[in-house]
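[step 3/7] fold_predict: job queued, chain A
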Amino acid sequence: MKKFPAFLLCLVFAVLVQSAKAEDLPVLFTDDFSEGADHWEPTDPEAWKISKLDDGNEVYEILGGSKYEPPHRSPFNIALLKNVVVGDFTLTARVMTKQTSRGHRDMCLFFGYQDPAHFYYVHLGEKKDDHANQIFIVNDAPRTKISEKATDGTPWKDGTWHQVKLVRKVASGLIEVYFDDMKTPTHVAHDKHFAWGQVGLGTFDDKGLWDDVELGGVKVEGAGGAGSSAATTAGPPDPKILKFTKWTPDFQVPDPVAISFDDQGNAYVTQTQRRKSQDLDIRANHDWIPNDVGFSSVEDKRAFYLDRLSPDHSEENKKRVDDLNGDGSHDYRDLTVLSERIYRIEDTDHNGLADKMDIYAEGFQTEVTGIAAGVLWFDGDVYSTIAPDVWKLHDSNGDGKADHREVFAHGFGMHIAYAGHDMHGLTIGVDGRIYWSIGDKGVRVKSQEGLDWRYPNQGAVLRCEPDGSHFEV
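[step 4/7] structure written:
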């Protein structure tokens, strides 16, 4: 089953799913199992059946045991609701355990299900520990607890029906679980990894009964065939049924180039002001080509600018640079006026639309500074590729502005070359290293370990540790 993306972005930062208040959620599905279990897709069909109780009521029973082997440590018995994918939702059901009392006696609710390696689940365990009676995420790794609040244990009673409720609000990342008491949640978490997905019932490895399921929520249409079997490849969404909403309805993001989201849903967007006006293009200065192809370091380019764009050559440089600082001279100092910027964009009221934009960092404006072509939020830090440097920025006091700045790699872009052949593509690799790329403006970097990496006349894919160590081409 294909993994659904957490965000679908268009150039104007569109979002597909809008948040809704719980009381506004329409009922999408109900099931008392009186007509069978055709709406459900178990991971192991032999471990589930429709059972008729002594009072004639029909329920969905988990028999215990399972042949299903998940790709990561997570529950074995899951029955997913077919053909319904939701964003915000409220799920209620009646549940009874048939397992004898033990610490990990449990039943589970599943949601945000993308595929067998990506989903959330609630483990209603009799006793709490790091692996029981918690809210968990499975994100291509063994289950990890994300609970901010959890009781010491779920008070299961033998032979007793219990009422459960699960609430999900995508915009804020809220997850709430209720058990019998529908006013006070027993479990609370916030997480935004999976913005929509299937829901399901089940258990880690116990026995139990489910009945009277009701799902209210925001249905996500065209989500690629959700509800098909795990072996089925989901198709692309139909563009005719997608609805796009401008994420920043009250303001424009000026001249955006690159975007990255943090784990709270805040966006970091780079703006270029320097392209072609301050970061010069060789096509407008083709008589410099013989000089440009001979540069082997950023310092070569800097020295060339200081010479050819000196105040003494102001008149002949009128066609090359504008007098942006207003001193009456067309020279290299006019290349230091406009700064690249990184904006932080936030949805402060958690309604699914951004309403606040602040400058996170600026002051990138030397005579050899290129454009802010890449940005990446990772583990509390913001990285940006602004030739000739890769920057690591941090907001230590939570005011939304970077107050700690360091260059952890220097020496990119020694050629004037073409505008757009820049340094970009920041991402985290599976090895935990920072990766990025550069066009044919060249590389001449001295690593923290003292190695001199020289690739002056070509592009490259580069990587290093998040602290800048072990730089490699």
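[step 5/7] annotate
The chain is about 5% helix and 35% strand.
The chain has a mean pLDDT of 89.
exit 0
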